[in-house]
Design a protein that fits this description.
Elements: H1 3-25, E1 28-29, E2 38-39, H2 43-53, H3 55-71, H4 78-103, H5 106-136, H6 140-183
Helix pairs in contact: 1-2, 1-3, 2-3, 2-4, 2-6, 3-4, 4-5, 5-6
């Protein structure tokens, strides 16, 4: 295995670990009427992995984090929580990193984050209709009644916060990693 591959795997493992730690330290419901919708910043290191190493790396880190988080931090959701987190964050990573990779400039970074956040939000409205009744025991019509006033704003807010923080962290992190590569 090449030295570069070892560095990449190590960095992705570190980003996954940071993601799980963030989820365990910071998690809270944004809407009391839907306490199962919990904000955590776990997507930030995952998005960073997707921007640094591509969409496949982002999806791989998402899978690892989703399983660990679903079995530990968010254990009450188990399989449904793992599926929801994996689908939501994978959509965000894939859309955002594919757009960024075309030009790798600030404009494509911002566009990728915005469109990734929107893709996640739209997808999660549908996923909530499918899986939230199984998780909560609520009827599909009750969940449908929550889409506009709760689920849509929750996902926009969660994705928006994570996108802004990712934007603020990505360029300094990318530059630091580039300098570290030059010096090694």
């Amino acid at each position: 295995m090449s030295n570069e591959r070892v560095k990449t795997i190590t960095r992705l493992g570190m980003l996954a670990a940071v993601s799980v730690v963030l989820a365990s330290l910071i998690h809270f419901p944004l809407f009391p009427a839907a306490s199962f919708l919990v904000y955590d910043p776990a997507d930030i290191p995952i998005l960073l992995s997707a921007f640094l190493y591509g969409p496949a790396a982002g999806v791989a880190v998402t899978f690892i984090v989703s399983v660990i988080q679903g079995l530990t931090v968010s254990a009450e959701g188990r399989l449904i929580g793992i599926i929801m987190h994996f689908v939501a964050t994978s959509a965000f990573c894939i859309v955002a990193s594919l757009i960024y990779r075309k030009k790798k400039d600030i404009k494509s970074l911002v566009l990728g984050l915005v469109l990734g956040a929107l893709a996640m939000t739209v997808l999660m409205c549908g996923m909530n209709l499918l899986l939230t009744p199984l998780y909560t025991g609520m009827s599909i019509s009750a969940v449908a009644g929550m889409i506009v006033p709760i689920i849509l704003p929750f996902n926009l807010l969660k994705a928006g916060i994570n996108a802004v923080v990712t934007f603020l962290l990505f360029l300094p992190l990318r530059n630091a990693l580039s300098k570290a590569e030059e010096n090694s």
